Request: fold
Amino acid sequence: MKKLLSIVVTLCALAGAVFFWTLGGAQWLKMKAGAETLGADEEFSQAEGKYISYEAAYPVASRVEEYYSGDPDRVRSTGYVVYDAERQAFLYVVVSDRDTGRLSNLMWNLKLTSEMRAAKDMEPGEIDGSLERMEPEAVEAALEALADSEIVSLYSSVQSSDGNYKAYCSDEYGKAMEAMCKVLEQGATQTEWYSIEYGNINGMASSDAVICILAAGLSLLIFVFRLIGLFTGGRKSSDSKLSDSASKLDRFFVAQRDWVEEWCDYSMNRGRRLGYLSLLGSVVIFLAIGILVKVPTQKLLVFYLPLGVLLGEIVGLMFWFGQKSQSKPAKLMKRLRKSLCKELPSAAEQEDFAEDMLNTGSEWRFREKTKESLQEGVVGSRYWVSLLWNGRTTVIDSEKLDRIETATISGTVRSGKVRVSYLSYAARFYYRNATPKKTCDKALSFESEDTIGLFMVLVRKRVGDTVKITAE
Reply:
């Protein structure tokens, strides 16, 4: 079942990579290649579908293209009817509210006299996007904006006045407007209209294409590593056979290998589950946001879905890497050995301890496993040991004991705006000292009353009445 789940997840990663590349791959490749400059002798129809860079020099009319959802007073994007003097044709340009400044200023300056325009910045607005054929409804809206244009009305009216004509039409901008008015007066209408949306490549925003590619790339990377894992994973690391000269301490740690690997497997599976849940949760949250703000289905697929997958995969990988670094059997064994050597610095003590542990039967062992921790312990004839999931080791020398005290620890701790109750159990060990101590020499902590109960039963069997046992 575990193998099957791993195969399904691997195939899902591949499917995600293919799906997101299909959505945004072509647009991303065009964006990386860069926008082409529209040739002077190239007609709009010849550049249809191409990602081009266009200099909009004569915006003569505008209309609101889209409002922000739920806010009818806030403009999201604006459409400008731009006159192309070289081709004597109109082009419809759509820009977001963040990029409307240049075209808006140009429109305002075209209403000024030639003398006043000379002191103004008349640099054309550069628009990068794909050239697309307009639908009939969109063409009608553009024509309505053109019919209501103040610039068209202004330059149409100055044609009959010599004074006004010289004031407005003596520079290159005025002459271009004069040519535009003649085109309109002659009744010549365009058979085909084209539009450019700034930053839009074949119906997709360039930022959406980048998000799709990032999601595809990360999904592909996950697929490759999981595929490698399917062929190389699942093999238990095994220690080489111990030589006859191996120390008793080495033999003791080899005996701990089973529970160490069990815990590491459990931790890794837990990390994987958290990763899967983070991915699923992120996708659901972002899709819900897109649905609530009522975005079009295309935007839902090319922005909210890949963004949810991308962030979910990043968080999932963080969970996975974090858990993986803590779930290496060799690393945990090394920490346990280091901690034990601190408890028993003498080599002779270590050998005595290991011999005691190796000679102790399984009936003297205790174990406590929770969702967050694992404790393995042995109550030997002399030494009692607790080995924790985090590499911490506690060793009690029963020959030094003066008394044992058990305690129930309870209370509450604040977590956010609520208080959470906790309950745990402790066994405290006091050694014989010339000067009595207020604090214990050693202590073990348990989450379950049953576990500390089993531990104390084993302890009483070992010490009998020779050590005083009290409850706090």
The chain has a mean pLDDT of 89. The first helix runs from residue 2 to 33.
